Amino acid sequence: MSASTQTTLFAKQALLPDGWARNVVVEFSADGRITRVESNAEPAGRAIAVLLPSPSNLHSHAFQRAMAGMSERRGPEPRDTFWTWRQIMFCFLDVFRPEDVEAIAAFVQMEMLEAGYSAVAEFHYLHHQPGGVPYASLGELSARIVAAAQTTGIGLTLLPVFYQYGGLDGRPLTQGQVRFGSDFDRFAKLHQEAGKALQALPEDAVLGVAPHSLRAVSAEDLSQVVDYVGNGPIHMHLAEQVAEVDEVLASLNQRPVEWLLDNQDVNERWCLIHCTQMTPRETVGLAQTGAVVGLCPITESSLGDGIFDGVRYLDNGGRFGIGSDSNIRISLSEELRTLEYSQRLRDKCRASVATEIKSTGRVLFDAVVAGGAQATGRKSGAISEGQFADLVALDGNAIDLEGRVGDDVLDAFVFTGDDCMVVDVWSAGRHVVTGGRHVRGAEIRNRYRVTMKALRERL
Ligand SMILES: [Zn+2]
User: Fold this and answer.
1) What pLDDT shows up at residue 4?
2) Is 162 helix (H, G, I), strand (E, B) or coil?
């Protein structure tokens, strides 16, 4: 699957850093980097109808894909909430073995590539054996995520998660959380092992770090982890649930976003996941940091998290990207549509984020391509020389794309489209999806089916 030779594409339409262009030749070399971009060129190489930079999916917990669609009944609590869902998720945890984690991750990564993403930031927190005993190699399950990426060819940003406590008062982990937990010393070793495992991947792979949340990491340990890692992306869940805001307020006397902005140097290295609970002041403050907010609109809808303050955030220059988080459904177009529709439903308006010169689909797409590249630490996010060739081609025969040019293409993709419009995907030059299907799709699907059957029997 490696890009063994020079590849040449000829796109009728392509979205370049300066805007839409016609008859564009794009070349990339065996190392996956773009070497030539020329508009109004003579035809050469593989013909493409629409060529776009492909976004990175900036937030995933791969194993949660296995419980998709299995948490839609009411539990014994008077109201089903994020917290009752979390209990179901904890019950699932005991059944996963290392080979299951690899099979599920490969399936999830394949679905992401077929949806048009070229890379993923895996927020990886399932580290230890059931009961919490570490594997002989602390990085065993990190290595399984890496092995899955070797199978699928996805661009991987691995974010080993530091998870120490069961809540802000420093209480111990519950039985459901012990597979995640480490003190700082154990985590430092685990992070090193994850870094070693990552060396099996091509050079576009990135190592970052993820202090799980203010619930799971103390203020001191948060600083220690950030200092220890030194460089690379830092991701953290923040301000997702009202109860979480209340707990942070009670313990730290500030709201989560407010506290983080006052206590850490939040900058371009940071990606803060969700931020669905912010005051207008927090929204503006966060927008001005240069950090990326990791929005997960499908999961946030599924879990009833709340609506992101998107219009205000964008008006203040805020950066964001998209993550598929719980992986209950993996669809790039649907994430963007859900995000925009959430703003419309709240504000009772249309075209919430469109500007005078860019359509809604274009604003959303530009933002998630740039935000995804920044948050994953990938040298991609634009079709230009020197960048990794993270590319997605849309199907010129798709009925809803017929006759569409420029921003209308993206509006059709976001609002009437689905993943069937995606025909080809390259991740750092690796041609992983062709004809809408992953090149190793049959094998990956079969393995997932067998894994899920075994898991059902073990549950
Ligand atoms: Zn998450």
Assistant:
1) 58
2) strand
- 435 C-alpha to center of ligand 1: Å? 31
Give Cβ neighbours of residue 360 (< 8 Å, ≥ 6 apart).
340, 351, 352, 353, 354, 411, 414, 415
Annotated catalytic sites, by residue? 274, 325
Q: How far apart are CA 346 and CA 344, in angstroms?
A: 5
The pLDDT of residue 80: 72
Rounded to an integer, what is the distance from CA 70 to the centroid of its chain? 22
Asked if residues 221 and 161 have their Cβ atoms less than 8 Å apart, the reply is no
Chain segment 196-213, per-residue pLDDT in tens: 999 999 999 999 999 999
C-alpha 14/C-alpha 28 separation (Å) is 15
Cα separation, 331 vs 335, in Å, equals 6
User: Which H or E run includes 204?
Assistant: none
- Look at the block and give the residue holding tokens 């993403």: 117
Residue 288: count other Cβ atoms within 10 Å of its Cβ: 13
Q: Which two tokens stand for residue 57?
A: 């999916």
Amino acid residing at 173: L
SS3 394: strand
- What are the chain's domains? 6-53+382-443 (2.30.40.10)
Residue 238 Cα to ligand 1 middle (Å): 10
Tell how far the Cα of 159 is from the centroid of ligand 1, in angstroms: 12
% of the chain at pLDDT higher than 70: 98
C-alpha–C-alpha distance, residues 379 and 364, integer Å: 20
- Quote the pLDDT of residue 1: 55
DSSP code at position 205: -
Which residues sit with Cβ closer than 5 angstroms to ligand 1, an ion?
A: 325
Report d(CA 423, CA 419) in Å as an integer: 9
Instruction: Look up the pTM and report it.
Output: 0.96
> What are the strands of the beta sheet with 46-53, ordered from one edge?
34-38, 19-28, 7-16, 46-53, 391-394, 422-427, 430-434, 437-438
Report how far ligand 1's centroid is from the alpha carbon of 273 (Å). Answer: 7
Judge whether 325 and 61 are in contact, CB under 8 Å: yes
Residue whose tokens read 């073995």? 97
**CB environment 240-252: b (16+ within 10 A), e (fewer):** bbeebbebbeebb
Q: What is the dihedral of CA 38, 44, 45, 49, to 10 degrees?
A: 70
Region 178-207 average pLDDT: 96
Range of weakest confidence among 108-117, 146-155, 244-253, 286-295: 244-253
Range list of H helices, 213-274: 219-229, 242-252, 256-263
Distance 4 CA to ligand 1 centre (A): 35
Per-residue pLDDT band for 92 (boundaries 50, 70, 90) equals confident
